[in-house]
Amino acid sequence: MKNTVVAIIGCGRIARNAHLPSLSQIEGVRVKYACDVLEEKAKKMQADFPIIENVITDYKVALSDGEVDAVYVLTPNFAHYTITMDALKAGKHVFCEKPITVNYELSCAMRKEAEKQGKILNVGVCNRYNRSVELLKQYLEEGKFGDVYHVYCSFRSFRSIPGLGGAFTTKAQSGGGVLIDWGVHFFDLIMYILGGAKLKSVTCDAYSEMAKDMKAYKYRNMWAEDTSDIENGTNDVDDFITGYIRTDKASISFNGAWAQNIETPEMFVDFLGDKGGARLAYGGKFTYWSAETLEKTEPEYDMPSMFVNESKGFLQSIHSGLKDRNNVDNVLETAKLLDALYQSASDRKEITF
After folding, report:
1. CA 340 to CA 352: how far, in whole Å?
2. What average pLDDT score do residues 69-76 get?
3. How far apart are CA 281 and CA 184, in angstroms?
4. Which of 27, 92, 231, 270 could lock onto 87 through a cystine, CB 3.0 to 4.6 A?
5. Is the model's pTM score more than 0.90?
6. Backbone phi, psi, residue 22, to 5°
7. Is 152 helix (H, G, I), strand (E, B) or coil?
8. Which residue in 324, 333, 300, 286 sits closest to 145, CA to CA?
9. Angle CA(331)–CA(336)–CA(338) in degrees, nearest 5?
């Protein structure tokens, strides 16, 4: 790997738990800047990750540094667009966490700017580098499923709304709830495995039922609880979604819940083919059933870090100029899908393309 100088913009959980540990493992990477509007967060990150050389609170300092090759945009969703556009115009390559931004129109504008500037814009749909997802795509390409006619996915959990009242549940900042937060990962890995599926129609119902009265909401644990504002904040996003998608390759049905009154979590994806089927445990491995032998197999394989391989793919793209699987060009259909699902839920009707 050639030497690459990067800046991290946003020092929250995804930076701490995924990207800085990964970049610390990749030879030839310099993290010249860590930026956060809260200086103490960036300083704490620097103390925990010695790879960080400097702490700043204004990301434009990094954009004006000619030594910086690329930036990682790891901020809340609403800030993705502005920072990414500024970085591209400053001549930087960009890795932007998922979702691309809060809607499809702005996502397309980001893609257009990357093309105009001749820069790489990758999106953090990390499951494209998950080994289980890679193998399932290989199974499909080898014909082990035959005709994949339907995919079902479930991403449901028990009363686990993140950061209630804060950015996660404020549509103006997040763009949505469980669909844009969890659904983006499930739908993107499905679209990737299916191999460039194109949308034909979608229908969706979305609900926000579990915390209509935030002060009365009961939970056992809460992701990002330090960002919550139950007393004075906002909750105007979906906590449950359900629907149906038709593509040119397979139909897809789904149920997703940040919060439901059933304690059993269900986080899986089923691929149904006429020659075989598989169930992927999200974040884990998969089981395959053969129509020919009626036997199930549970393949054994290593699970390398998808975040490390995702960053390696981005850095290689920077130096080769070749777009990899996480390039914005390959992720726009997922962004289009999310927008259409929200539109269907809002209009209470099917959306066709």
Report:
1. 9
2. 97
3. 16
4. 92
5. yes
6. -70, -50
7. strand
8. 286
9. 100
